[in-house]
Design a protein that fits this description.
The chain has about 230 residues and is α/β, with parallel strands linked by helices. Helices cover about 40% and strands about 10% of the residues.
Length: about 230
């Protein structure tokens, strides 16, 4: 296996414990717009961008005036009312610092908007540790389409075999595989191992990944853990 030169990193559910908050923000924004959609239906869609979520839950086009207003309102609710209470997962910063010491490029690859990404990284306390960032605003299609991953590779100057993607949802795993990048799954986003099928390794969270980083980089522990 070629030497790994870059980690592509999801934020929500991976570095920051924010998935439930995103689902709540969608639920409240949808209710304000007249759509009674239960939390239980929204929560499994967290990890996709608004281009996927809006049509799935409302039938509206994401780029219609109504769809755009809905996404804007969701963002307002999330950033002003829910974000301040969120906390990073243990060792999130330590993982990124260790990658930096090893001169492994750290690249955000998120379905969040540019605006959301900035506040998410700040809340997670890792904004100063990223070498490159790619968001939904940089591509036409969010995860599970491979656009975000492919753009992250290009921006970091990496070939697929030189990178790994760390994410918490089936959408992260699918996007990585479609772009030719080995995915590492973390259970911290609430998904089960079967949902993360295709990941070369699955860890409880980034803290456990950090503890096994040598094995992962040397391809010695490309199997499910725990």
């Amino acid at each position: 296996m070629p030497a790994i030169r870059g980690f592509l990193l999801d934020i929500d559910g991976t570095l920051l414990d924010s998935n439930d908050a995103h689902a709540e923000a969608w639920e409240r924004a949808l209710a304000e717009a007249g759509f009674a959609v239960p939390f239980s239906r929204i929560r499994p869609l967290v990890g996709m961008g608004g281009d996927k979520v809006v049509p799935l839950l409302t039938g509206l086009s994401a780029d219609s005036p109504e769809g755009e207003r809905l996404q804007e309102r969701r963002g307002e609710i999330f950033r002003s009312e829910l974000l301040p209470a969120l906390r990073p997962f243990p060792k999130a910063r330590e993982l990124l610092e260790e990658l930096g010491r090893r001169r492994i490029r750290r690249v955000v690859a998120t379905s969040a908007s540019e605006e959301d990404m900035k506040v998410l990284l700040e809340q997670a306390g890792v904004g100063d540790l990223m070498d490159e960032t790619v968001t939904h605003d940089d591509v036409d299609r969010s995860k599970p389409d491979p656009d975000i991953v492919a753009t992250a590779l290009a921006k970091a100057g990496l070939r697929p075999e030189q990178a790994m993607l760390v994410g918490d949802t089936p959408y992260d795993v699918e996007a990585a595989l479609r772009a030719g990048v080995p995915p590492i799954g973390v259970r911290s986003g609430g998904w089960r191992d079967n949902d993360l099928h295709g990941a070369v390794a699955v860890f409880d969270d980034v803290s456990e990944l950090c503890a096994h980083l040598d094995d992962v980089l040397l391809s010695k522990r490309l199997a499910k853990v725990g």
